[in-house]
Design brief:
Layout lengths: L9 H11 L6 H11 L8 E3 L8 E3 L2 H12 L3 E12 L14 E17 L2 E10 L10 H18 L24 H6 L5 H28 L1
Antiparallel strand pairs: 1-2, 3-4, 4-5
Helix pairs in contact: 2-3, 2-6, 3-4
């Protein structure tokens, strides 16, 4: 996945900020969002092959997204609001795949609430739906169907705050979030000089994590 071209500069952001006379996030919060919205390195992006009428698509695994969000925000809460159950139609035979009979009852989806933020009173409460994509899988009990649906809803909810959001963009040019982050120098000039040291420390730590992970992947491939 090529890196998107960003056209929203810090200067443009500052002009916009002067017009509305308020800043939506604190400078320290912008720094954390910059970490979250940074496009994922290619070594962490996997491709789900084409299946039936569904096209091939790129994705970042559930566990990687969870780790990134924990790095940026610390702990967060999730709650199952509703479990969606009902009968499921059978699946006709296709190629070498056998037909699947109808299911009289299955977990088809879930509504999940995720609460996440910087501090009490500064965050989001997001309700998102998730589906069990293949309820006919012979190895799935209703519990397994529920786990699949929760995992799907979890990724979709975190996408709403910018975690791996670029994976949902059909074109690189549609991923605009990083361009909304004001230039760090402008933030410092705005009156929070201490931010500069924090930016440098966070950038160094984030770059080191990416380098360590890349080295681990290369070493495993060589063995």
């Amino acid at each position: 996945m090529t890196q998107p071209q960003l056209g929203f500069t810090g200067e443009q952001y500052r002009n916009w900020l002067d017009r509305i006379d308020q800043q939506p996030f604190k400078n320290s919060e912008w720094i954390r969002l910059a970490q979250l919205w940074k496009p994922w390195p290619s070594q962490f992006v996997e491709t789900k092959p084409k299946s039936g009428n569904s096209p091939a698509n790129e994705y970042v695994s559930h566990i990687l997204i969870t780790q990134k969000v924990l790095q940026v925000f610390g702990f967060y809460d999730q709650e199952v609001i509703e479990v969606l159950k009902g009968p499921v139609n059978g699946v006709p035979a296709r190629g070498q795949k056998k037909a699947k009979p109808p299911l009289p009852m299955a977990v088809t989806g879930v509504v999940l609430r995720v609460k996440i933020g910087f501090e009490p009173g500064r965050g989001w409460s997001i309700d998102e739906a998730g589906a069990c994509e293949h309820p006919h899988n012979d190895q799935y009990s209703m519990g397994e169907q529920l786990k699949k649906a929760i995992s799907d809803a979890h990724k979709r909810a975190l996408m709403r705050v910018g975690a791996a959001t670029e994976m949902w963009c059909k074109k690189n040019s549609h991923y605009l979030l990083p361009g909304f982050i004001p230039d760090y120098a402008l933030m410092v000039r705005a009156g929070e000089g201490a931010v500069a040291a924090e930016v440098a420390a966070l950038k160094e730590a984030a770059d080191q994590v990416v380098e360590d992970n890349a080295n681990a992947i290369n070493n495993s491939e060589e063995q």
